[in-house]
Amino acid sequence: xxxxxxxxxxxxxxxxxxxxxxxxxxxxxxxxxxxxxxxxxxxxxxxxxxxxxxxxxxxxxxxxxxxxxxxxxxxxxxxxxxxxxxxxxxxxxxxxxxxxxxxxxxxxxxxxxxxxxxxxxxxxxxxxxxxxxxxxxxxxxxxxxxxxxxxxxxxxxxxxxxxxxxxxxxxxxxxxxxxxxxxxxxxxxxxxxxxxxxxxxxxxxxx
Length: 207
Prior knowledge:
about 25% helix
């Protein structure tokens, strides 16, 4: 199953491709965007390496991977998604790869949800909107058994997205950092959505 183009009320989600590298570099050049990931902007070489890893992970489990999000009219409520990526505004990187980190299960039926938005698109509900679409894709199209999401305990914005889409808190854990950003001493949190939770969700818009 190839990765699919996905659409939400306001977003066009296009599978990550090599032609998107410059947008990834642009996104990761803002240290605030990476505040709870590395605490600093990434160099071009670092982003090139990350892009290669993402492209490899996108081929590990059919249908999973990474999407570049595009919007129109600053992603305002009531705006329609662009017909094509070339006609839209780049919003950010949306992630649904197979679980692969050191603190994640080695299970092809478990995916990891993530999102990284350019600052101008923060606090507009776009991460939640894209996340609902990716959860729907994970369970209804790909057939995953579970989706997890992880972030620093102090990252209130990211945790708010996880809660908004119906994920539940699972645990707090303490990974090792080479260069820990502020707040790393409080650990990281993991949330989850299981297939049973998804199927029991009473909100049809979330499914």
